Amino acid sequence: MKRPPFENVSGPAAPLPLANINTDAIIPAPYLRSPSADLGAGLFARLRYDDAGREMPDFVLNRAPFRSARILLAGRNFGCGSSREAAAWALVRFGIRCVFSPAFADIFYENAFRNGLLAAQMSQEGIDHAVACAQTAQDHAHFTVDLAGRTLSCPDGQQIAFDVPAFRAEALLRGDDDIAVTLQYADDIAAFRASDALARPWIHDFGHPA
User: Fold this and answer.
1) How far apart are CA 16 and CA 94, in angstroms?
2) Where are the domains of the chain?
3) Domain 9-181: which CATH class?
4) pLDDT, tens only, 24-71
5) 10 Å Cβ neighbour count for 76?
6) Are 15 and 155 in contact (CB under 8 A)?
7) pTM
């Protein structure tokens, strides 16, 4: 299957450099009770809203220009906790295309790429610099993510390198999901099955229904 290819992302980057943000903080369980729930509205709900459902004015995504952020600057161990894939869904539904962190929780990391979300590892020094730029520049905090070049360009002109495995970056740039990536090797798979059927025919003999 195909999804829209990943293109360079530009705009404000929301600074949220808290360590150990878990998947329940990213998308609280009450938003998972209905298939029609607005996951974008539920993103970081316990941080975004008070008990009456009113926006918390100090939370980053409730402030301009970060309401329209497509880039998130996160702390270490982002996405820890439960394995809920809805954490990636909520970020994408809100409009986030890229999350930068010094380290991601393993399952969240896998879920991110499966949903077309770039989860890019960046040094702590790089995160700190980008967060400082986002916090000081505010309305002029224009960042650009160059996936092919593996760089994040900051408002002060500095380019910060980030890491993404080559096969994941290529899949995002092509717009391939896991099935499409596998189908690239369809000829190799068919050739192996044919040769293996000759070498080990009993493995490929599934019998015939009576």
Assistant:
1) 15
2) 9-181
3) alpha beta
4) 999 999 999 888 889 999 999 999 999 999 999 999 999 989 999 999
5) 16
6) no
7) 0.84
